[in-house]
Amino acid sequence: QILPCLRGYDQLPNGLKFGENEEGFKYRGASAAESASIQAIDAFLNVKFNAAQKGFIHHIRDFMPSGHRRFIEYIEVCFLLSYFLYLKYSQLCLNLVSI
């Protein structure tokens, strides 16, 4: 069971209200998506996410240091593992298939 203070309250339609404040606050809970390292690994491995997951991940990036965010975006565009594997092993695979 996760601690209540780490669960977050962003799913409450009106937010979480404290005292006499009319406007509710929305707080996200702890998430591995907050780690630039985890997002960088996902980008390097070219992990695909559905629209809701991608929206959450990009929202979390707004709270990262700008250098971390730019590094992840660089990896997504320029450093795809699948592309490098293709370049390295495509000819080898073709040779094996044609034997």
What does this molecule look like?
- This protein has 99 residues and is mainly alpha-helical.
- The protein folds into two domains: 1-30, no CATH class; 33-99, no CATH class.
- It is 55% helix and 0% strand.
- It has five helices and no strands.
- The protein has helices spanning 4-7, 36-44, 51-61, 66-78, 81-97.
- Helix 2 (36-44) runs parallel beside helix 4 (66-78).
- The longest helix is centred in the last third of the chain and has 17 residues, at 81-97.
- The N and C termini lie far apart (55 Å).
- The model has no long low-confidence stretch (mean pLDDT 76).
- Pfam families: IDO.
- Keywords: Iron, Metal-binding.
- One of its GO terms (biological process) is L-tryptophan catabolic process to kynurenine.
- InterPro entries: Indolamine_dOase, Trp/Indoleamine_2_3_dOase-like.
- Belongs to the indoleamine 2,3-dioxygenase family.
Sequence-ordered SSE layout with sheet pairings:
Blueprint: H1 4-7, H2 36-44, H3 51-61, H4 66-78, H5 81-97
Helix pairs in contact: 2-4
Keywords:
mainly alpha; 99 residues
Rg over C-alpha atoms, rounded to the nearest angstrom: 20 Å
Which geometry do the CA atoms define?
elongated
The description of the largest β-sheet is: none
Which whole number gives the mean pLDDT? 76
Query: Ranges with pLDDT <50 over ≥5 residues?
Result: none
| Count of helical regions | 5
By DSSP, the count of extended strands is 0
| Derived structural class | mainly alpha
Helix content: 40-55%
In short:
The chain is built from 5 helices and no strands.
